[in-house]
Amino acid sequence: FVSSNVDIASLPQTPVFIEVASTVQQKLLNSLPITGYLVKEHLSWNIHSINVSSEICSPIQIVCNYLDAYDKHEIDVGDVVFHGQKCIKKPLPAKKCQDLIAKYFFEGNADGISSFRFVEIFVNVLANQLIRLSSSAYFTVENLKLMIKDETLLRTTLVKTLIDISKEFATRSVKTKAAQLESTSDDYEAKFEIVQWDASNHLLVCFMSQNPDSICALYREKNKVPDNVKEFLKSQFMAGPSKWELDDYNRMASNLLLEKLECLARRTMYHIDLPLYALSADNIIKMALILLRSRANVPVVVMGEAGCGKSSLIGFLAKVVEVNYEPFNLHAGIKEQDILDFMDKAQKKADNGELWLFFDEINTCNHIGLLANLIAHRTLKGKLVHPNIRLFS
């Protein structure tokens, strides 16, 4: 009960939860006078709060079993198998998994990382590649010993490269955030800067889809590719290391770039008719980045000026991957019910296979909260969307 003079009021005991968005120096939170009278409890980041699945084939178990073997220097000693008679029978304990993630994801890279989302991206992207390594007949320990007579650390080099690239993949947005904070002045209306595309070589090393035993490396500039990646690519070149040469994608013909993209993205081998599209080194890297995120079920947000080709890039990639694709053009006149109706049809269509949904011009829509939950958390009105749906904006 609260009282003021002769007035007495009974306050209900129903708890109310209000989420206030994070802002620089918590200016939005501090602008609400009522928050100064509430009891505050600071929730600190703790790696041991991560929930670890006990399913052997879950992304975190796949990643942590490889990290455990890598930590013990056993990658080139024995295969890490998740299917068949020789597969791993017992999952790693949660504490062990948390410690391995802390060691190989956070050490030397912890500044600004205090979100489970970064861990999720790292684990999902890395697991998607490691399960392909486990399924590869070429990269088994026994097969490599038959082909390479000398003692080799080929598998260790590959796993280390995949770890480093997945870490870079997950933390690139952290670097963007750091750049934004550095450029933010005391002015509340200060403009934010985003890290430019040209600031990174965008090195990617991943397994092909058409030839699962082959590795593909993509990059913007060949002279910035690390030596360990060059040595690895050279070692798997069948014609012999002396004849190997690092590809220069900036000088590669458009038809050869398309062949590279199809090897990376397509699982089928038959000819398909594709629309005309001007492929370039930058475009194929952007498509590969989008593909890796979609396969790991990580949200994809494409940024760029109006008319720069975002929609056509995702639409062309969807045709190459051979998935159903549904764009939804948003604008200020779109109602919430329009979005719900679109998603209702998409949920039914997703029963037939993988479906890509692209929400174009998302920043022009008045229902950004609904769309943010949908894209970032894969939830619509509190319910998870169909697992076959991949979301793009």
TrEMBL record:
InterPro entries: ATPase_dyneun-rel_AAA (IPR011704), P-loop_NTPase (IPR027417), RNF213 (IPR031248). Residues 299-379 form the ATPase dynein-related AAA domain. SUPFAM superfamilies: P-loop containing nucleoside triphosphate hydrolases (SSF52540). One of its GO terms (molecular function) is ATP binding. Pfam families: AAA_5. This is 26950_t:CDS:1.
